Request: fold
Amino acid sequence: MSNVKFRLVAFTLMILVVAITIGGAAHIAWMHFEQLQARFNSTAIASFRSADQFRATLEELDYLLLRYDAGHDEADWEKFDRDRKKLDRWIDEQQPALTTPQERAILQQINEAYDDYQQAALRLHPDKSEPHLRSISGTRVDDVEPQSKRLLDLAFQLAEAHQQSLKLFLAGFEGSMASLRWLILGALFALLVLGAWLAMIVYRDMIAPLHRQLVESQAIIERQEKLASLGVLAAGVAHEIRNPLTAIKARLFTQQKLLKSGSAEFDDAAVIGTEINRLERIVRDVLQFARPAEPNLTRVAAQEPLRDVQDLLGPQLERNAIALRVGNISDAYICVDSQQLKQVLINLVQNAAESIGQDGTVTLSARSSHWRLRGDSKPVVILEVTDTGKGIPIEVQKRLFDPFFSTKESGTGLGLAIAARIVEKHGGALEFQTQLNHGTTFGIVLPEAST
Reply:
């Protein structure tokens, strides 16, 4: 009898030890997962934004210098002077936020290079600059360009340093996850020996959900890394295009004054001006994709943006015999930036109209549902744009949200990419369902606003 009791006690202790082992391992894995989320959300994205914010501000300073050099408008110079001081203070404030010696070293180089940039820029306006620079004259905006290019290169280096820091962190995280995975599998084997039913419960309630969350998190991280790198590259290219484009536009404006209205030369200049405006629109789209604005959230009824878009685009679509209708409407509320949401809806409606061509219907609707957003199932409102167009081919579906991918001859391929990023900024998701020769439905999934 005592031997049986001993075995029962030992069996109970083994189950308890295995359960504690699994619970501890799962807790450690969850802590690592939360650490990964916190590190990526707060540090990595902040680091990418730091490099991008610095580059964007420097681009604005260069643009103000170019305008001042062209027109000598004191308002431009005063804005430049204010902004360059703000950027100087901002650089000093970034040091505590950086996590590696390499990042700090690059920031120190940026600080020194920015001092040279300021001195070169201040020589453009000796009367307003420091006393020891007032005797220097003849400086042109071209003299500031080497310092600006150097700072831009350093900004790219800072972004790359951020990426390396994140990759090292992910490598360590994956090693820890591998060790924890083996520990959990060993505990599961012991539980299978002790009782298959207990192993099934543990795997179903603890291991499987944790694994799914880790896979989803890894996919999000990889996509954010690609978008951040592409955003920095795209913004740098847009910066290089904007300055010469501004100069070309200014020279064209000067030449147009000398041409006779109605002449062939005047018409050619008008065509050039139109193409320059098109290039400026492309540059604006690239910059919006590279650094989308943060949404200013307000609580609105789900039907409100749909009604606004119907009033705005309905008459335009009627010219091609396309009816823009509002279907079933949920009475739920959402917290959104109305202007940004309307931008997304307008893009989807215009794409739907282009898919139809002529004689068709685009239907706007809103419905309440439950959706899994960022790992949690929650009540949502889905704003849908449904068309009776041709549908989306399978080969196009795979790249539909890829930046710079377009099936239109004059398209930039940024419309849906920007729309998806705007929806993500709202904590939602942009989904679609399509059937060839029957039409497509795009759904903007947004968290429902609490009452």
Summary: Residues 298-447 form a domain with the Heat Shock Protein 90 fold (CATH 3.30.565.10). Confidence is low (pLDDT under 50) at residues 41-45, 129-138. The CA atoms of residues 213 and 375 lie 6 Å apart.
